[in-house]
Design a protein that fits this description.
Bound molecules: ligand V47
Shape: globular
Number of domains: 1
Number of helices: 14
CATH superfamily: Aldolase class I
Number of strands: 10
Order of helices and strands: HHHEEHEHEHHEHHEHEHEHHEHE
Radius of gyration: 20 Å
CATH topology: TIM Barrel
CATH architecture: Alpha-Beta Barrel
């Protein structure tokens, strides 16, 4: 049998399963990830996405604040951190953080995305004071903050449980957890790229605890470096199992590796082909996570637009002042305006809908 036909035949039973609404096995997902038929897989993911969300594509009005870039860990893929005591390290004060939100008064901002390094001395009290200061002046703004890695670090240095840390932060104004720090769950990859920081079980346990406390969260996967296809499927599978248990994840965000200014000796990130395939397979396998985000900052605007036909239904937001990707060589702009976001969604043939962090539509009074 010619090779092309053999590849096509392999996908037939998987496509049938998807059309019948049956769950994919890990072996099915691996076959999809290894198949050269990326357009066919994209079409399957698109049908799945359109069944859930029709033609809509959501975005939000957000800004990033990195409370600190100082980190006790040495992740080899990270271009953002500074060692304690190194030039260029900072810790943002509550007043400075409030000032950055104030700059955007009247812009319709609904979300602050606040993540950074694991600082050697900043404790739960520091983050609580940051959230309280922001909430005192902007009670309506949703604070999506601290990756599971940062929560686990705060618990470790404060000798508190994840539950205690999360409860204190929730009390101070934390709204939800972003999905960062998941990287690739497999120990082999973690040992090489981010040894010492929280492992897969701890990452999952932080999110499990958050969900039990009514704190929703997101999940990510950093791909395009040293991981194998099997390790990608293992990562997705662990997320799907936790979601079966708690239902607390809102969105999954595959993060394409950016190779500049870091210690991991890899010269290029994943191709557009690979990014679209990983996204489509994620959409099909994670049948219990509502949303798949095409994070335009890391995918680039052109691939993010294509991704809206490969399973993604969300683009993230205006972003503003993001440094993790930009320090790693991302050439995307520092900000997209609402007009630009809506235009690129419409250009891609989708209908833009503004959402809040919890994926509720935002109604705005039209300007006269
Ligand atoms: O945890 C770090 C990754 C993450 C690099 O939850 C890198 O809505 C690529 O988690 N190349 C932070 N990736 C970003 C993140 C995120 C982004 C957008 C939305 C949400 C959300 C979460 O970025 C880190 C790490 O996994 N990262 N360095 C790099 N060189």
């Amino acid at each position: 049998m010619p090779e092309q036909l053999e590849f096509a035949r392999k996908l037939d039973p998987i496509e049938e399963k998807i059309d019948l609404g049956l769950r994919l096995s890990e072996a099915d997902a691996l076959a999809l990830l290894e198949s050269p038929e990326v357009l066919r897989i994209g079409k399957m993911a698109n049908r799945f996405r359109e069944k859930l969300w029709g033609n809509q594509c959501t975005y939000n009005i957000n800004r990033h604040i990195h409370p600190t870039n100082v980190c006790v860990f040495r992740c080899t893929f990270c271009s953002f951190y500074r060692k304690p005591g190194q030039d260029g390290g900072y810790l943002v004060s509550p007043e400075e953080a409030v000032g950055r939100v104030r700059e955007l008064a009247g812009s319709g901002l609904t979300e602050l995305h606040m993540v950074g390094g694991c600082h050697p001395t900043a404790r739960v009290e520091y983050y609580s004071s940051l959230y309280r200061a922001i909430k005192a002046e902007f009670p309506e703004i949703h604070i999506k903050s601290l990756t599971a890695v940062e929560i686990a670090w705060l618990a470790r240095v404060s000798k508190k449980t994840f539950r205690q840390v999360l409860l204190e932060l929730k009390e101070a104004g934390l709204g939800s957890l972003p999905g960062g720090g998941a990287e690739i769950f497999a120990d082999r990859v973690r040992d090489i790229t981010c040894g010492g920081k929280c492992n897969a079980d701890e990452w999952l346990e932080v999110h499990r605890t958050a969900h039990q406390l009514g704190i929703r969260s997101n999940a990510t996967m950093l791909y395009g470096h040293i991981e194998t296809n099997e390790e990608i499927i293992d990562h997705l599978s662990r997320l799907r199992s936790l979601q079966d248990e708690t239902g607390g994840f809102m969105t999954f965000i595959p993060l394409a590796y950016h190779p500049e200014n870091n210690a991991l000796q890899i010269t290029h990130g994943p191709s557009a082909h690979r990014s679209l395939q990983v996204l489509a397979v994620s959409r099909l396998f994670l049948d219990n996570i509502d949303h798949i985000k095409a994070y335009w900052v890391m995918l680039g605007i052109e691939i993010a637009q294509m991704a809206l036909w490969f399973g993604a239904d969300d683009l993230d937001g205006t972003v503003i002042d993001e440094h993790i990707y930009h320090d790693a060589g991302a050439t995307t702009p520092d900000i997209l305006t609402v007009g630009q976001l809506r235009q690129l969604i419409e250009e891609a043939g989708r209908v833009p809908i503004e959402r809040d962090t919890l994926y509720q539509p935002v109604q705005r009074i039209p300007m006269v």
